[in-house]
């Protein structure tokens, strides 16, 4: 299963970002997730097998480029949707010739922060 998405304070490594962005399937997922989508929706629009999709979502999650949003299904259970979780990725080189990565994130709304808190509480029960 996909690892919990990182908070905006987490800093993925340069290599995690490069690995995710170097993958054609990951790039296809990122193009489609401007709005939250379920795994089944992503399988259909990206034409990726289910097992591959979850591996790619894990890669994107480790790089903090997508985040999971769980909602309650009125018919029971939870629905997980995946959404792109960055506005911009900047890779630069400093004066010491060291590469750095900066991931700019969209501002979080109060309801999103509250939903994350509730989701984490539910996981601990």
Automatic annotation (TrEMBL):
Lineage: superkingdom: Archaea
Xref: SUPFAM superfamilies: Winged helix' DNA-binding domain (SSF46785)
Gene3D superfamilies hit by this protein: Winged helix-like DNA-binding domain superfamily/Winged helix DNA-binding domain
Pfam families tied to this protein: HTH_20
Designated name of the protein: Helix-turn-helix domain-containing protein
Originating organism: Halocatena marina
